[in-house]
Write a structure and sequence with these properties.
The protein is mainly beta. The chain has strands at 2-8, 21-25, 34-35, 44-50, 56-58, 64-65, 73-75. The strands form 2 sheets. The chain has a 4-stranded antiparallel β-sheet, with no helix packed on it.
Length: 95
């Protein structure tokens, strides 16, 4: 696993002017790769790939770490990359 930094939307994002997000992934991605997901309305552009697998991000500072030391830290979501398979329907259990 590694951590990727992404932006949503703009086809040509500016690194210092666009809000960035992070995900954990085992996919072989590189900066500039474009992704689509049913979970988001806009395209996802990979800005950077970090070799380290961070577990948490700080929602105010944006710092990433592997230890939870603040109530402002949240788990980094995992992003799985796969080819679209029309023969598979994904669902979750509703209780």
């Amino acid at each position: 696993m590694k951590t990727i930094i992404v932006v949503f939307g703009d086809a040509n994002p500016k690194p210092n002017c666009t809000k960035q997000y992070c995900f954990r992934t085992s996919a072989d991605l590189k900066p500039g790769d474009k992704l689509r997901s049913r979970d988001y309305d806009s395209e996802i552009t990979v800005m950077d790939v970090l070799d380290k697998d961070y577990k948490y991000y700080h929602q105010i500072s944006g710092d990433m770490s592997n230890e939870r030391t603040s109530t402002y830290q949240w788990p980094i979501k995992t992003l799985e990359v796969c080819e679209k398979n029309n023969d598979v329907i994904y669902a979750t259990i509703v209780k």
